[in-house]
Amino acid sequence: MTISESAWQAAVDALTAADDVALACHVDPDGDAIGSMLALQRFLEGRGVRTIASWGTPDAFAGDELAVPPQYAFLPGLDTLVVPDRFPARPSLMVAFDTGAPERLGSLRASGEAADTLIVIDHHASGQEFGDVRLVDGSLAATAVLVDELITRMGGTLDRDTAICLYTALVTDTGRFQYASTTPAVLELAARLISLDIDHAAISRQVWNTHSFGYLKLLAQVLERATLEPQASLLWTMVTQADLERFGVAWQETEGLIDVLRSVETARVAMIAKRQSDGAWKVSLRSRGDVDVGRVARDLGGGGHAFLAGLVADDTIEELVARVAAAIADHVRAGAPTRPAHTP
Ligand SMILES: [Mn+2]
After folding, report:
1. Which of 207, 226, 261 is the last residue in one of the domains?
2. In the chain, N or C terminus with fewer CB closer than 10 Å?
3. pTM
4. CA of residue 143 to ligand 1 center, whole Å
């Protein structure tokens, strides 16, 4: 799935001609989504383009708050973001980042559909065909790789702040350069970014090692509850709103909990179910390789990749675990895949 020259040219032409560009990434953004968006925004602003950037709320209603995950609060340019309420209803040119399906834009989906031109920059292998110009390559480690190429194709160079955004995007989406998506080209890009005098050690510290004491206690609680379902080779646990209140932790801070579960060798699949304030479960799934959790999630109305997927459910926790366990049995892979296209 490579990107055609004509798609690159269409994106370059549209962005070069534009006076105003609206930028959006997916709901509950991760480091790649925010970092990629801020990098292109900064580059466009530097060329005198007026920009507006945000991300949607998970439901259809626009929000008047923008919840920045605390681990990304250091990213340069965050102060220029607007709340989703202020995002244009009908942008002339809009760019969507790291968004594999229109519904992932949440409350900004309607703006994407109403935009005169929508450019999608993404690396989700199983994404939906939406948008007018698609810079989508499911083999890449991060959306940031495409933003770097786009800036280069537009004749631009990276400054230090842009490099901080792109490096953060790259280091988070490759699991700190651990995942199989970490190719020589990824490490070359990382080297190029580090050569722009960014403090990559400080970035790692801020992204991964800035938890509160409350987070540690929450982690203990979540691990205490962890249950292994041996027949399904499923290790699962849950987090509730009450836990967050008790330990003073924000939802945005719980992104890494699943990685602790995934480290257990005897479980093929790790699952964390987060109980939302409306009672629904937001469920994350991770695979160690021989179960395609993207298929598991799709069977249950969700979506994702072979190694990382999610869904929303409103069952009891027992029903949810039973449904996931049954779907896992249907999707045990014949052989372990050699290499995931990418993870987040
Ligand atoms: Mn990504």
Report:
1. 207
2. N
3. 0.82
4. 5
